[in-house]
Amino acid sequence: MDQPAPHSPLSQASALPCGSIEVLPRTAAAIADFRSLLAPGTRIYIAHVHGTPVDDMVKTATRLRGEGFAVMPHIPARSIGGPEDLQLLLTRYRQEADVREALLLGGGATSPAGRFTSCRDMLETGLFEALGFERLHVAGHPEGNRDIDPDGSTGEADRALFWKQDYARRTGIAMAIITQFAFEPTCFITWSERIAALGITLPVHVGLAGPTKLQTLIKYAIACGVGPSLKVLQKRALDVRRLLTPFEPTELAGALTAYKQANPESLISAVHLFPLGGIDPAARWMSAHPTA
């Protein structure tokens, strides 16, 4: 089971730890010391934009581990040439940065760099367990994903989750699901209840958009393929007073916490923040809300 965020005042049974955030290597380079922004032990995902040099990813991971954070780099299947390239990358993370965690993604590259097209392709190499990785996260899509299920169903996505869950059981590697961000609690709640009813038991880390201007948030949401919950933002944009007020995920986080307190058996177990408006405001929000 995932550990509570540092200094969490609520019990693990009722709290949603807000304990992870993500950065780009170029964003991280602009921060003198993350210890001035984030609580010790915060999990920091290192986002991989297609074309980012491996050296920049590993350098960022090494630096953040040195500052005392749990580091989880993105490993995008479609950007990796094959087993040899994956082995080299994972070996560098382990030896140079003592990284023991990774977020596995299919990746957004239009054409695969090699034979990998999915997380399963990478997991089937056996490299993660062989090289001592202890925790792997995988993506969840509460509003669906047309790249995975072009027909609008959830069949392929559901089968992929079952396969990954079985992989975690077989290898003993801890695993959780990190979701795309959305803007209404029922989106996350309905999806998590549905996959639980199917037999999925992996913890779900709910992705929330960090504080940012509403116009910026709508732009990101459209680019990332956010589904029906985008209507919540569009409705807000019609209110001139709210349009001028920066968006914060406080109300959404509070609704999810209330649900978790009423349903402690829920798969929803933590909050992950996407710092779409910048690291500083996202870190300030996390500091003020160690639990959602």
Summarize the structure.
InterPro entries: FAD-linked_oxidoreductase-like (IPR029041). It contains twelve helices and eight strands. It has about 290 residues and is α/β, with parallel strands linked by helices.
Give an overview in words.
Helices cover 40% and strands 16% of the residues. The chain has 292 residues and is an alpha/beta fold. Strands 1-2-3-4-5-6-7-8 form an 8-stranded parallel beta barrel, surrounded by 5 helices. Strand 5, helix 6 and strand 6 (174-179) form a beta-alpha-beta unit. Helix 8 (214-223) packs antiparallel against helix 9 (230-237). It is globular, with a radius of gyration of 18 Å. The two termini are 18 Å apart. It is an enzyme of class 1 (oxidoreductase). Its EC number is 1.5.1.20. This is Methylenetetrahydrofolate reductase (NADPH). Keywords: Oxidoreductase.
Q: Estimate the helix proportion, in percent.
A: 40-55%
- Mean pLDDT across the residues is 88
Distance between the termini: 18 Å
Number of continuous helical runs:
12
Helix-strand layout with pairing:
Layout: E1 18-23, H1 25-29, E2 43-46, H2 54-66, E3 70-76, H3 83-97, E4 101-105, H4 119-123, H5 127-130, E5 135-140, H6 155-171, E6 174-179, H7 185-198, E7 204-209, H8 214-223, H9 230-237, H10 240-243, H11 250-262, E8 268-274, H12 279-288
Parallel strand pairs: 1-2, 1-8, 2-3, 3-4, 4-5, 5-6, 6-7, 7-8
Helix pairs in contact: 2-3, 8-9
